[in-house]
Design brief:
Strands 13-21-20-14 form a four-stranded antiparallel β-sheet. A hairpin with a 2-residue loop joins strand 25 and strand 26. It is rod-shaped, with a radius of gyration of 46 Å. By secondary structure, the protein is of the alpha+beta class.
Amino acid sequence: MDGEKQMKKKKLLLLVGLIFLAGSYLMLFRVPWKELFLSGNEIAAGVYIDGEPVGHFTNAELKDWLEEKNTVWKKQHIYLMADGERFAFTLDEIGAAMDIEAVMNAAYGVGRQGNFFMRFRERTQPVLLNYCFKLDKNIAVTHLRQLQEHINMPVQNGNITVNSQGEIVIIPSVEGKKLSIEKSVANIRDSLTWDFAGEVPLAIITTAPFPTTEEINSWQINGVITSFTTEYQETEVNRTHNIMLAAKKLDNILLMPGELFSFNELVGPRDAAHGYEKSLIIFNQSFTEGYGGGICQLVSTLYNAVLRGEFLIVERHAHSLGVSYVPPGLDATVAYGTLDFQFRNGYDFPVLLHTQAEAGKLSVSIYGNVHKATLAYELYSKEVETYPIQEEMVTDPTLADGEKKTLQRGTKGKKVETYRRLWQGGTMVGEEKISTDIYQGKKQITAVPKDAGL
């Protein structure tokens, strides 16, 4: 029993001591007793919102006070900035407002949360709060989407072309721009303060063009480094149509240093489905009608232009028969899916192909840096072997005994070697063999009477 009495006495003394210390603190710092006790809806005495005192406000008074502040604040202008342009709205128009509920909750909670000592401290010392703001995302997004129509711009890659007069034309590049809705909303929300600055940068996503105007200018494509022209008969309407159709697909083709050119890949199939007409083609050592007649003249014209420049021939095929538009050894043929014409750009700068079919003349010009393309090329071919004419006999019942009729005059076959000489400033600096080609020659087709013993 004595022990219990002593324990109770110690607790009583401790309580008295605490009351004495609290009283001493209050007397020492002159804390009014009434500040320690709050009515049900009263804000603690030492509460300040952005430096303005709101202590002892009731909730209703604080709400009215905040709404007045909000009304004034929302009338301020916000300027959304993009590439030097300003798009003006009021804060109210953009969907911004003071978060009155959040501010009231924070103010009302002062001195009412935590343990005794925390509450005591908050009720007896100044507590500085800030305004809270919110943004209606739906309203902001509506305005930003309207701005997208003004701000967004598709990327435009730079380009270099040659016009019908042979003039080099550079199409300037334009950087692509797109307004980021999500990031712009975040920028607006983050900018909302009581002392609002007024200007908010919009988030713009840019897309770099390729090539840029600067890159194109650095290539220094300034003139023709090699060209070749062949002639065709405009009266051969289908053939002319085919030549012009394919020539357009090769026009303004840019080749970077070392890049591979493939005729079949660029021109595609030559059939009726792709707009080509029937005309004479070489098939099985004879001339016959087929789709895409005239294409080989374009390939041969290109081949001759390429041979006169610093290009590496990767794939080239000669015709089985000689053709009229280029000398033997300087022709090239293609067949989609089987025979292709390919070469690589051997220069250390880009080159640009320009093709033109007009008034019976088919030209292929290759543009590049004329100051760097200093070598000149001379081509020549020589016949190193000939083959006799092959003759084929066919019967014709309308012919009399002993009578003959030549249906197709034959030509001799030949083997041709083609060489290229390289010149530098008037001095020959090299010579190389380009190809060895065998032309079968046309068959001699002769008609004889039915009973001629064939």
